[in-house]
Amino acid sequence: MKTNYKYVMIVTSEDNRYTGNADGLQLEHWANNPWDGTFEGITTGDTCEDLLEGLDCEGLFYQLFDAQRGTRLGYGIIDAASISEDIVWYESSLNSVVNT
């Protein structure tokens, strides 16, 4: 079992304040504030594919962290494109620091 991962993703969902109508919080609230939602789990991996493997992510939100540094890379609604963009941006920013 591998225990040294590059990324950690905290997965959350909306809570009972979501009513689906204008009287309650809308899903956009949890997309912009996933830490305010209901904890669903944690997933780890070295790539976006690893992080999403076996995860039923419909309607869920994420916070993505560098597992070694604790740096938050991104957050929002779980979708492969967004998570991949977060990883590519972060890795390119690390490479630009190393190369300067």
Structure report:
There is one protein chain. With 100 residues, the protein is an alpha+beta fold. Helices cover 30% and strands 27% of the residues. It is built from three helices and four strands, in the order E-H-E-H-E-E-H. The longest helix is centred in the last third of the chain and has 19 residues, at 80-98. The model has no long low-confidence stretch (mean pLDDT 90).
Brief description of this entry?
The protein has three helices and four strands. It has helices spanning 27-32, 48-52, 80-98; strands at residues 7-13, 38-45, 61-66, 72-77.
Describe the biggest sheet? Answer: 4 strands, antiparallel
C-alpha Rg (nearest Å) = 15 Å
Count of DSSP H/I helices: 3
**Helix-strand pattern:** EHEHEEH
